[in-house]
Design brief:
The protein has a domain of 198 residues. The chain contains six helices and 32 strands. It starts with a helix and ends with a helix. Helix 3 links the parallel strand 1 and strand 2. It is mainly beta and 528 residues long. The relative contact order is 0.07. The strands form three sheets. It has a 27-stranded parallel β-sheet that branches. A three-stranded antiparallel β-sheet has the order 7-6-8, with no helix packed on it. The radius of gyration is 26 Å and the shape is globular.
């Protein structure tokens, strides 16, 4: 009773009694908790289902929380979807909400039968991995659905922030679409078999619209396969992505995209894409470009781009591309590209500029990183692994390794990158050798420098407070660990690339190009 009198006293000072009750009650409204306990998606009126919990959260003022029963498997096949539009979405969030998934899984089992009578499932694809090619004559038996729309179309959704923790997905069409100015934070979750059995061509797993912010922390995207048809565009190098954004903001950390075929792992047009302490493995590369509204910036930090796809080739997307006046900063990262599995020559640049391309006045900066293309001499003779096109600019600091090829010698690279100091040859990583052909070892071994590598402990003053301390572009805090959890410096030095080595500097030189290495070590000691 005392509380009620106290509130009435404060409100009545400036408000009439008729408006006092509504105003005061809204100020003291309480956020609510909603529990999901059912193993099917359900409807808005079906208590205990996910659909019911979403409806309740959207209808209740305040930051509500949806709690999903621990380990629950929620079948979404045949679920009712959000009305309107051609795409099948399970949920639309119009209010801020926290979702505690407790390692539950949204599970779909989409299938279709081809005109030739073949059955396609989420784990058994028909044709190449750029499918599923749903075409005229195919019969969709169980359509695919996608998880969530954040905010409303053509509205300012600044106040909508959806946070999702430990909610997995398997067999959906995509995960989320962020409308203008909305925010989605997704963490500690695994997404498997995200396949395009929805009839939409090229739907990404995550799509961010103008001004939205996508935060991904400790998530794994495994087997995102959104396209129908083989990729060979005459107009673009990489024209899609498992993660797609326009004039938006991406903060991706401690996350993985693997075995995915989204015509590139990430496509960001305008805005900023921060990829930190993450791994892109056999999933294409990254393209960043300016838009008509915003400059485009990529910060690829303490991360790995690994391309050795032994199944279907990724065509022209297996590169980091700074396009159309954008800036791509590659810092303390590892890029490993095996050209052996590139096939055909129908891409715009004929597989040149893989793994690094700066095009149309784009700038690509290499800092404290290790870049190694393999088997160019065997599979792509005469092709350039590093390409400046139409005013593009490739730049490197002196603390990097950029591997030379027969087509681009060390001298060629020093001229191209306008720096004569970085390493371009020497012992780097251990490989598997099959019949004289090199293969990258699987991660993490494949990206771990050889014990007496030229990459080991090169960058001086890299510890806390040092001139070359490694900082996180997302929060400006020091990065203390490499992508596999090792301490990021050893004795104040940082190893080139995304994997820190604690092996002491070798006392004897047993590597190829010993003269070059000796000169490098002398320069390094002088700097320290």
């Amino acid at each position: 009773m005392v509380n009620i009198v106290f509130r009435r006293f404060f409100c009545s000072r400036s408000l009439k009694l008729a408006t006092l009750l509504g105003s005061c009650l809204s100020q003291y409204s309480q956020a609510a908790d909603f529990n999901v306990t059912k193993t099917y998606w359900g409807t808005a009126s079906d208590t205990g289902t996910f659909a019911w919990a979403v409806n309740q959260a959207n209808s209740t003022v305040g930051l509500d929380t949806i709690h999903v029963q621990s380990g629950l498997n929620i079948n979404v096949d045949g679920a009712a979807t959000v009305p309107g539009g051609a795409r099948a979405w399970l949920a639309k969030f119009t209010e801020s909400v926290n979702i505690e998934g407790n390692n539950a899984t949204l599970e779909g089992n989409p299938t279709y039968i081809t005109s030739g009578g073949l059955l396609a499932t989420k784990t058994s694809l028909v044709s190449n991995v750029y499918g599923p090619p749903i075409v005229h004559g195919d019969i969709v038996t169980t359509p695919g659905v996608s998880f969530a729309i954040i905010g409303e179309h053509n509205q300012n959704n600044t106040g909508i922030h959806v946070s999702v923790n430990a909610l997995n997905a398997d067999g959906l069409g995509s995960i989320a679409f962020l409308h203008t100015q909305s925010t989605l934070t997704y963490k500690n979750s695994n997404f498997n078999n995200i396949v395009n059995y929805t009839g939409d061509t090229g739907r990404p797993a995550f799509n961010s619209d103008t001004g939205s912010t996508l935060n991904l922390n400790s998530v794994v995207l495994n087997r995102n396969i959104p396209f129908g048809g083989y990729l060979a565009s005459a107009d673009n190098i990489a024209f899609g992505g498992s993660i797609l954004g326009g004039d938006a903001f991406l903060n991706m950390s401690n996350s993985t995209i693997e075995h995915s075929y989204g015509a590139g792992a990430i496509l960001w047009v305008g805005g900023v894409a921060n990829v930190v302490s993450s791994i892109l493995s056999d999933s294409g590369g990254i393209q960043v470009s300016d838009s008509s509204l915003m400059d485009g910036t990529l910060n690829f930090v303490n991360s790995i781009l690994y391309v050795q796809d032994e199944g279907e080739t990724l065509q022209q997307t297996s590169r980091i591309l700074a396009d159309t006046n954008s800036v791509a900063n590659i810092t303390s990262s590892t890029i490993l590209y095996n050209s052996l599995f590139a096939s055909g020559d129908n891409s715009p640049f004929g597989f040149e500029g893989m793994p690094l391309t700066a095009a149309n006045a784009g700038i690509l900066n290499i800092n404290s990183s290790a870049i190694l293309p393999l088997n160019f001499d065997y599979s792509l003779p005469g092709k350039d692994a590093y390409l400046e096109l139409t005013g593009g600019n490739l730049i490197s600091d002196s603390y990097s390794f950029i591997g030379a090829t027969t087509a681009q010698s060390s001298a060629d690279l020093h001229l191209l990158f306008n720096n004569s100091s970085f390493l371009s040859s020497g012992l780097t990583y251990s490989f598997d050798d099959f019949g004289g052909t090199d293969y990258l070892k699987s991660l993490p071994v494949g990206a771990t420098p050889w014990h007496n590598s030229v990459l080991v402990n090169v960058v001086p003053n890299a510890g806390s407070g040092g001139a070359n301390e490694l900082l996180n572009p997302i929060n400006s805090q020091p990065i203390l660990y490499d992508v596999f959890g090792h301490a990021r410096t050893s004795g104040g030095f940082r190893t080139l690339g995304a994997v820190q080595s604690t092996v002491p500097e070798p006392s004897t030189l047993t590597v190829v190009t010993g003269t070059l290495l000796l000169g490098w070590l002398r320069r390094r000691k002088t700097r320290s």
